[in-house]
Design a protein that fits this description.
Elements (H helix, E strand, L loop, with lengths): L7 H12 L6 E7 L5 H9 L9 E6 L1 H8 L4 E6 L7
């Protein structure tokens, strides 16, 4: 996995997930280098990510999904999504 693409909070969460047999999927923000091509959109859909023509997409991914996306050259970065509190 290309840890250089993960923010610090996500890298810690992924490491904790490795040690936790009951780990949950993580909410993440995926930043792409450019709007996805049709082939890249198909790859994103394989992870249940519907990005359309956007360069920032959100997803709920397992550690393995994060690992697979981090290794794609057209993915610029992946960050742990901030939890939203009440408004």
């Amino acid at each position: 996995m290309d840890y250089g693409k993960l923010d610090a909070a996500l890298a810690r969460a992924v490491d904790e997930e490795d040690r936790d047999a009951h780990a949950r999927d993580l909410d993440v923000l995926v930043r792409l280098g450019a709007p996805p091509t049709p082939g890249q959109r198909e790859r994103l859909l394989a992870f249940d990510i519907e990005g359309g023509g956007r360069t920032d997409v959100t997803a709920t991914l397992s550690r393995h999904g994060i690992e697979a996306l981090a290794d794609l050259p057209w993915v610029r970065s992946i960050a742990l999504a901030a939890e939203r509190g009440p408004m």
